[in-house]
């Protein structure tokens, strides 16, 4: 009879074969401490207009609400680090996670393949795949699964890989061997706090006011960007990598090996003037399968115009 240890070993091997860089297992249980933190964050209005963050609170903190009878949460890491930069240093900047094809589709396909493997090899296993698309506290589960610690910038940091990676989860009604959480290695470092131009990270870290984050302002916010942020956007038109770029742990980041994440041939060579004059047609070509489509052409134009006014 196959054991939890055997199942865990099989799943790890297949996940790595599919291209996941790290795999960790955690027991599916109610997240009491995380529930308190989330409630406080929401009460302080730090989610801005991300109203969906307040929805399905019970599901966010209890995996059995998402998968009845859930016993395990498998957390997985998928690298997206690309050291290539935009050629024109004056061009408005785009976060490197959005260089290539939308990660939701790329990672979700691999996750579905992993679930199919589990069901084929182990048998009657019920489970669901999650890639930043459902009420799952992915960083907290990754922390519980021993994949890293949550840093002062509130991102998951892995001591061997930094933080330039996507997180994904499989919630299963299958018993597995569970990993131990990792301790925090941020130490006295404050680089992310000091570097954030909008002061979105609290003075002591470990708390981000989402409504001040450049990623929120350029992607999530549907209204005009408030004037108080003029001169503070550091030329970012979609997302922001500042708190990752300055993190010492990202010196261990290695280039990804995912062809789907390669940028469109024109993306990195576009000049400042090209972005300022971008048409709907060019937008559709360059970002055909990109996460940038989330902000739409008019949203990107809004961001670029705001940067011009700074």
From TrEMBL:
Keywords, comma-separated and alphabetical: 4Fe-4S, Cobalamin, Cobalt, Cytoplasm, Iron, Iron-sulfur, Metal-binding, Oxidoreductase, Queuosine biosynthesis, tRNA processing
Record's catalysed reaction(s): epoxyqueuosine(34) in tRNA + AH2 = queuosine(34) in tRNA + A + H2O
Record GO cellular component, one term: cytoplasm
PROSITE patterns: 4FE4S_FER_1, 4FE4S_FER_2
Active site positions: 132 (proton donor)
Annotated cofactor note: Binds 2 [4Fe-4S] clusters per monomer.
Domain of life of the native organism: Bacteria
GO molecular function: 4 iron, 4 sulfur cluster binding; cobalamin binding; epoxyqueuosine reductase activity; metal ion binding
Pfam family name, one: QueG_DUF1730
Top-level EC class as recorded in UniProt: oxidoreductase
InterPro entries linked to this entry: 4Fe4S_Fe-S-bd, 4Fe4S_Fe_S_CS, QueG, QueG_DUF1730
Segments forming domain 4Fe-4S ferredoxin-type: 174-206
EC number: 1.17.99.6
Binding, [4Fe-4S] cluster 1: 186, 189, 192, 247
Cofactor(s) essential for the protein: [4Fe-4S] cluster; cob(II)alamin
Gene Ontology process terms (BP): tRNA queuosine(34) biosynthetic process
Pathway assigned to this chain's UniProt record: tRNA modification; tRNA-queuosine biosynthesis
Residues that bind cob(II)alamin: 60, 132, 153, 156, 167, 215, 240-241
Location(s) in or outside the cell: Cytoplasm
Binding-site list for [4Fe-4S] cluster 2: 196, 213, 240, 243
Role this protein plays: Catalyzes the conversion of epoxyqueuosine (oQ) to queuosine (Q), which is a hypermodified base found in the wobble positions of tRNA(Asp), tRNA(Asn), tRNA(His) and tRNA(Tyr).
Family per similarity comment: Belongs to the QueG family.
Subunit and interaction comment: Monomer.
Record-given protein name: Epoxyqueuosine reductase
Organism: Haliscomenobacter hydrossis (strain ATCC 27775 / DSM 1100 / LMG 10767 / O)
Gene from which this protein is expressed: queG
């Amino acid at each position: 009879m196959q054991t939890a240890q055997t199942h865990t070993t099989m799943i790890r091997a297949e996940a790595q074969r599919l291209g996941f860089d790290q795999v960790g297992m955690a027991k599916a249980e109610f997240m009491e401490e995380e529930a308190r933190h989330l409630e406080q964050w929401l009460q302080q209005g730090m989610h801005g207009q991300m109203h969906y963050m307040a929805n399905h609170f019970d599901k966010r903190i209890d995996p059995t609400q998402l998968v009845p009878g859930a016993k395990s949460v498998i957390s997985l890491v998928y690298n997206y680090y690309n050291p290539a930069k935009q050629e024109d240093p004056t061009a408005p900047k785009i976060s490197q996670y959005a260089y290539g094809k939308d990660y939701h589709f790329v990672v979700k396909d691999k996750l579905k393949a992993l679930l199919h493997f589990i069901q084929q090899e182990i048998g009657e296993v019920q489970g669901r795949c999650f890639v930043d698309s459902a009420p799952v506290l992915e960083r907290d589960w990754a922390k519980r699964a021993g994949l890293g610690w949550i840093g002062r910038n509130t991102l998951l940091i892995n001591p061997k890989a930094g933080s330039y990676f996507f997180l994904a989860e499989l919630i299963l009604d299958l018993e597995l061997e569970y990993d131990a959480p990792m301790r925090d290695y941020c130490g006295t470092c404050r680089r992310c706090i000091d570097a954030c131009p909008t002061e979105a990270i609290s003075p002591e870290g470990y708390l981000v006011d989402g409504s001040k984050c450049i990623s929120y302002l350029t992607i999530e916010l549907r209204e005009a960007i408030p004037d108080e942020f003029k001169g503070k956007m550091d030329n970012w038109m979609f997302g922001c990598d500042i708190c990752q770029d300055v993190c010492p742990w990202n010196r261990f980041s290695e280039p990804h090996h995912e062809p789907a994440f390669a940028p469109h041939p024109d993306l990195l060579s576009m000049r400042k003037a090209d972005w300022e004059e971008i048409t709907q047609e060019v937008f559709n070509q360059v970002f055909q399968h990109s996460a940038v489509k989330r902000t739409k052409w008019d949203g990107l134009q809004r961001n670029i115009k705001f940067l011009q006014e700074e």
